[in-house]
From TrEMBL:
Gene3D superfamilies cross-referenced by the UniProt entry: Glycogen Phosphorylase B (3.40.50.2000)
Transmembrane segments: none
Top-level taxon of origin: Bacteria
Keyword presence, Transferase: yes
Keywords, sorted A to Z: Glycosyltransferase, Transferase
Pfam families the UniProt entry points to: Glyco_transf_9
GO BP term, example: lipopolysaccharide core region biosynthetic process
GO MF annotations in UniProt: ADP-heptose-lipopolysaccharide heptosyltransferase activity
Source organism: Mesorhizobium atlanticum
Name of the molecule in the record: Glycosyltransferase family 9 protein
Keyword Transferase: yes
GO cellular component: cytosol
InterPro entries per UniProt: Glyco_trans_9, LPS_LOS_Heptosyltrfase
Amino acid sequence: MSISQPSSVESDSSGARKRTLQGPFEAVRSILILQTKYIGDLVLASALANNLQIAYPDARIVFLCEARFASFLTAHGIAAETVAFKRASARGSVLQRGLELYRIVRELRRFAFDMTIDLVDSKTSHFIAMILNARIRVGYFPTERRLRRFERQSANVLAKPFGYGEAHFLYRYLSPLEALGVDLRVRFPSIQPQPVETARVLALLDKFGLRRNAFLVVHAGASFPGRRWQPERFAQVIDTISNETGLSAVLVGGPDEAEANDQIMARVKAPVVNLVGALSLETLLALLKEARLFLGNESGPMHIAAAAGTPVVGLFGLTNPIRWAPVGVPSVSLRPSMPCECVGGDQCRRTDPSKAFCVWRLEVDAVASAVRELLARTETASETAM
């Protein structure tokens, strides 16, 4: 199917031919964004959705995402609707995976999408885009995983792996705009809490005797063990900064991160409020909006904090901050020198960022210094906010 849009054809360094667009499409009424990854990826992809909504104000934007993130996307206007998938089913038996894929495709087809944008770039997402067969199908070229002989890229609009000459993963998710010829109006994610969630957070602050813009939010968890700094070191930094500044600390995280936070609570001497497992993502965003600073591992909450406009100190291991640092706010990203001198022993898989414990090499003094520096750098803005 051809695209009714002025375009030219050029060759890349491998000789493959691809279509380059000369202007934005018109008459786009429905757009599907396939983004089935983690909350941090969805936060970064929200900048893509924001730009698309500006370019196509009459279009309905739908996300395919994991079920637990669906309400966050719709509550904050990132998506008009979502189609949710269950990760457990997607990782189940062949029959379970097949049934889940059939359900998803059936639900998606009722939208009759004009445009699909495949941010996942996987075998499954290629298949979904092919089956939906929207008039405009955006995908990456070259694909992240080399296609086998019997596979094909169903996209008819080809985006660079990273757009605008940038290396951060944000620009992987913004690259489809460049391919579509859509102006980049909003460069960074910006997600504001709902008034009802702000009211809920203000009530929590009052309950625990905390003042707006006068506490740290600390997240000691992460999706993978290799990305988690030691709990006892978080406790030391909290004590150091609290003694020096008088700032209290609030611990956040999911129910499955309680163990690390229990270790912090057992060691810390400064005033700490433990809200681990007690907040929805919507309420977490509102809490982060009221915080003076976020301190935590490379994680989804780190990106939520940045999108809320809160200064961030992010702790990195093997993952490179050039790709995943917080964006759009004052921040400090700490990473030990590389190549890493292994401290994880048999636990480490030295080439896998999720299983390499390089973050353990960050020292307490370095992290405390980063918090001090960022507090000082953002002091004027903090006083204005109060």
